[in-house]
Amino acid sequence: MADSQHLAKLRDGVRAWNAWRTARSAILPDLKGADLSGTDLSGIELSGADLSGVELIGGTLKRAALQAATLIGADLSRADFSEANLRSATLSRADLSGADLSRADLAGAHLNDANLIGATLKKADLRRASLIRADLSGADLSGANLTEADLRDCELSYCSLVMANLAKATLSGARIDYANLLGWKVQGVTCTHIVRGDRREIVHFRPHEFENKYLQNCQLFEIILEVEFSELAYFVGLFISKSINEKLGSVVVQLKTLDGISEEHTKFVFVSFDIKFVSRSKDLLNTALRGQINRLLVSMERPSLLFPRQVMMYVPNGLDEENTGRASDSEVPEAGATRSEKIVTHYSTYLKKLQQAIRSIVFSVLSQSESPPQGPAKGRRSSLVPQ
């Protein structure tokens, strides 16, 4: 429970509060459990304060001083902490989903078990920070400094680590599926194993093996498909990269960007961590794969409505052979389902079928690159695209 006098002083405004803190620097504010949602506290002095369990949903704390503050279990979702000083702060089990921590100083901070889903941490300082079991799914860590950070058992799938510095960090047990790793630095990383895929497969590494694997140069390649720039295009690119990785048995390709180049065409840019794969398969990807997926997109009846928001949060699980070709029980609308629930089920079923079809195409096309080249039969036209 917050100290009533401290809470009353806070409500006098940031300027009055900061003056009070300066005059009474020995006092450590007690604001436990206070509801400060939506409050603008930009530039406030809260170093050493106890904010455990506080609610600051959508609050603004730009350039706030929170060094060594305690925010255990606080709800800080969608709050703005850009350029804030959170050095050595304790944010274990805090909800920072969707929060803006751009350029924030989180050096030495404790973020164990924190929810950072979709958070923005561009160029944040996370040196020696502890993020054990933190969920950073979809977070933007581009340019962040994670030197010597502890990321054990951390969820990093779908996040951006572009140009992030993870030198001497610990990544054992982390999951990095579909993370954008372009230009990241992993010199001296400690990683005994990572978790991969929907079934949480354990992939073990010998000493320095992880570092050597991910330090190799990256290469970009493009595929232009006949699909409008949309949520559907995103899923098509996602399924292509996921299927390539499944076929090759490791994370070799990731979807980097989409670019609508006309009303009916989208350019997909992929990054590959295996240069040999690109040189070996680039022609096949731009002929056989492109041709077959274009024909698939034309032949499959597309949903006429925009993708509902719930479906954008849906990523189909790994495919079970026994379920191929039929919807799972969870994809059949229950009796009495609402219209929105039926729409979500409809789109989810469509995406499941689309993923299965793209997987089949990718596996077939990549099998061609594994086979020795054969000359065309006499009198017949040679083509990589099935006639």
What is Rg?
25 Å
Unreliable spans are 308-333, 373-387
What is the average of the pLDDT values?
84
Q: Looking at the structure, what is the overall shape? A: elongated
Helix % is 25-40%
- What is the chain-wise order of helices and strands? HHEEHEHEEHHH
According to DSSP, the number of beta strands is 5
- Strand order in space, largest sheet: 3-5-4
> Could you tell me how far the N terminus lies from the C terminus, measured between alpha carbons in angstroms?
73 Å
SS class: alpha+beta
The tally of helices reads: 7
The percent range for strand residues is 5-15%
The biggest beta sheet is recorded as: 3 strands, antiparallel
